[in-house]
């Protein structure tokens, strides 16, 4: 068997946790070829399955050993790569670096590889897979067996490109290239400085060229690209993106003016990319035009400099069938005719670049924007995340009182802001004249407390806020016993566990109290916590006995757990005996499961045998009473060690 010789004088400090002396030779051995398994042998792809897991590969891992007892094997040994080829001899291939010994391909990934391999759409053609394992980049590899999977690909629509958010998740907005030539355009509703990416129909991802001063240059190099970002005005933008010239532009439309027999300003609804206005016409068949005379074009020459932005005009042209087109000239605006004198609402729908259209409806429309269910705290954890994000938020307590609250892990370097709208950097609440007060679009960031876990409360009606450090969580009220029992703080911030014995349903339900006092408490129902809510009454619906109560006051969830949990739906078997996991520690359950057949409806994790208490969602984010977990459908046949972790809220399948 081949061995890897590591010369510690050169690399022990980078690769190993300890070494005896410079120059020692350490031998790593035990690497063998792996057995590669697949979940499918024939796959028919379609546009509808582009985001669905369609093929899973798994392989066993070698048992490596090292010749020294005082050093350890680096995490990146062995080096593992999946190689995919159109030919069985692998003269050319595509390489994928997996993070574990299971890898799942989506339909879109497979179809893009088929396109790159020049496969004929709608024809079943074999695609070849193998796993390459090596001690390092310059050592001989160990190859697994080769697996052939017949792939029937589909024709990729290159007329649409999908707008992704900063996390590369589809937003629902698209840009359109009518000739499928990479020249995309469309209207987008966005916040100031909003970050985004663009994904073409073949999966190609585009972002900004990763260098200062090149704000409107495009790049498809995912290793170096930055996200695109809009200028410092939120609202409506006419956006173009050219994959040929590798430039994009953003034309800001601050308003749309109605002129003619009626004069008015239209209102923009960002989430729907629509403009609307309610008007009263004094005569029959009143005629108006819609235009913008002070649009601003941002491109490579202007960057996001408002003073350098190029002045533009826009005129909308309406046809008799409700269709809309536009021209970069206000004078081009066409006539729009109302009916008999009265009240009307005129609406422009611009979200679908293939169907720009307008509607005239009778009667006035007053659109009332609801108060957001969340208050986002940008900058509250930049000492942890390294940047300002909208990932942390308070939840709405009372819409009438405009109050919000939530538990946040605070580590702020420069203070933070509050916003009712995600990714809106302009319409923010900052600190008022003194700490504890707020001011809309104030001058100074809210002063953050020392790093730690805090209950943060905000009152937007009275413009106040408060920070209360969270040091403990206790429960009280079970069996009508209101003495407080402190819970155990788990390794995940905001997660606590405690053993609860239920003998009888409590009259008022139980509550969770912050810091061992009565001032701040959580009640709730259905697995969800809410600050100041009525008591938790699960003790009236579950059997008497002893449970682990796991509460996450950051995510505002709770669960009662017994000694076992049950996986149903695996191999399409729906009972409580096929896969039983037992308690390993508070909130953590382990066991084994064998996959031998399809799981067409996914799987669920049941907390008891009542069918009423279960978790669905996803392997990475389980949710109480959520939809069935469908990732199981992509796992290859075999035996797995299963870990269900209610502390981290995850479900893990590891190949034995």
From TrEMBL:
Swiss-Prot/TrEMBL keywords: Signal
All copies of domain DUF5111, residue ranges: 157-253
Domain DUF8037: 374-468
InterPro entries according to UniProt: DUF5111 (IPR033404), DUF8037 (IPR058350), SusE (IPR025970)
First and last residue of the signal peptide: 1-18
Keyword Signal: yes
Record keyword Nucleotide-binding present: no
Span of domain SusE outer membrane protein: 21-132
Regions crossing the membrane: none
Entry superkingdom: Bacteria
Name recorded for this polypeptide: SusE outer membrane protein domain-containing protein
Species this chain originates from: Labilibaculum manganireducens
Lineage: Bacteria, Pseudomonadati, Bacteroidota, Bacteroidia, Marinilabiliales
């Amino acid at each position: 068997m081949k061995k890897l010789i590591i010369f510690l004088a050169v690399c022990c400090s980078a690769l190993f946790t300890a070494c005896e002396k410079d120059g020692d030779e350490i031998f790593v051995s035990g690497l063998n070829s792996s057995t590669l398994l697949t979940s499918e042998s024939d796959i028919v792809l379609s546009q509808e399955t582009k985001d669905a897991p369609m093929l899973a590969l798994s392989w066993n891992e070698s048992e490596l050993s090292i010749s020294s007892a005082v050093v350890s094997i680096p995490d990146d040994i062995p080096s593992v790569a999946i190689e995919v080829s159109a030919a069985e001899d692998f003269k050319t291939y595509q390489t994928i670096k997996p993070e574990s010994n299971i890898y799942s391909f989506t339909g879109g990934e497979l179809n893009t590889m088929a396109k790159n391999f020049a496969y004929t759409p709608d024809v079943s053609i074999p695609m070849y897979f193998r796993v390459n394992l090596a001690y390092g980049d310059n050592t001989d590899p160990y190859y697994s067996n080769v697996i052939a999977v017949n792939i029937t690909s589909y024709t990729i629509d290159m007329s649409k490109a999908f707008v992704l958010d900063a996390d590369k998740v589809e937003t629902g907005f698209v840009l359109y290239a009518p000739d499928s030539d990479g020249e995309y355009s469309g209207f987008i509703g966005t916040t100031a400085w909003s970050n985004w990416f663009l994904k073409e129909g073949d999966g190609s991802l585009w972002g900004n060229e990763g260098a200062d001063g090149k704000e409107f240059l495009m790049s498809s190099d995912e290793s170096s690209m930055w996200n695109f970002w809009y200028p410092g005005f939120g609202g409506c933008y006419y956006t173009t993106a050219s994959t040929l010239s590798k430039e994009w532009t953003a034309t800001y439309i601050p308003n749309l003016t109605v002129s003619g027999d009626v004069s008015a300003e239209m209102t923009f609804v960002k989430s729907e990319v629509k403009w609307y206005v309610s008007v009263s016409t004094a005569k029959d068949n009143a005629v108006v035009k819609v235009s913008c005379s002070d649009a601003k074009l941002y491109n490579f020459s202007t960057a996001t400099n408002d003073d350098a932005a190029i002045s533009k005009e826009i005129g909308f042209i309406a046809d008799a069938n409700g269709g809309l087109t536009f021209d970069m000239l206000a004078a081009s605006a066409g006539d729009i005719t109302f009916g008999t004198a009265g009240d009307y609402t005129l609406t422009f729908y611009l979200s679908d670049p293939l169907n720009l259209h307008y509607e005239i409806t009778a009667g006035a429309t007053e659109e009332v924007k609801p108060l957001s269910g969340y208050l986002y705290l940008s900058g509250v954890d930049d000492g942890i995340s390294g940047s300002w994000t909208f990932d942390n938020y308070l939840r709405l307590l009372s819409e009438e009182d405009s109050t919000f609250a939530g538990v946040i892990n605070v580590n702020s370097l420069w203070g933070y802001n509050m916003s009712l709208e995600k990714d809106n950097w302009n319409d923010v609440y900052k600190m008022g004249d003194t700490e504890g007060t707020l001011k809309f679009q104030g001058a100074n960031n809210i002063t953050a407390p020392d790093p730690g876990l805090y209950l943060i409360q905000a009152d937007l009606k009275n413009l106040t806020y408060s920070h209360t450090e969270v040091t403990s969580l206790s429960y009280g009220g079970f069996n009508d016993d209101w003495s407080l029992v402190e819970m155990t703080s788990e390794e995940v911030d905001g997660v606590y566990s405690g053993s609860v014995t239920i003998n009888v349903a409590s009259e008022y339900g139980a509550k969770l109290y912050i810091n061992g006092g009565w001032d701040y408490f959580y009640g709730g129902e259905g697995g969800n916590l809410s600050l100041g809510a009525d008591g938790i009454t699960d003790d009236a619906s579950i059997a008497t006995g002893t449970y682990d109560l796991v509460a996450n006051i950051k995510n505002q969830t709770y669960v009662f757990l017994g000694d076992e949990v049950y996986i149903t739906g695996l191999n399409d078997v729906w009972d409580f005996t096929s896969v039983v996991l037992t308690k390993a520690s508070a909130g953590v359950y382990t066991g084994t499961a064998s996959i031998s057949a399809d799981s067409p409806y996914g799987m669920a994790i049941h907390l008891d045998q009542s069918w009423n208490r279960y978790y669905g969602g996803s392997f990475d984010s389980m949710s109480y009473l959520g939809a069935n977990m469908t990732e199981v459908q992509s796992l290859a046949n075999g035996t797995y060690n299963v870990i269900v972790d209610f502390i981290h809220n995850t479900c893990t399948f590891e190949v034995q």
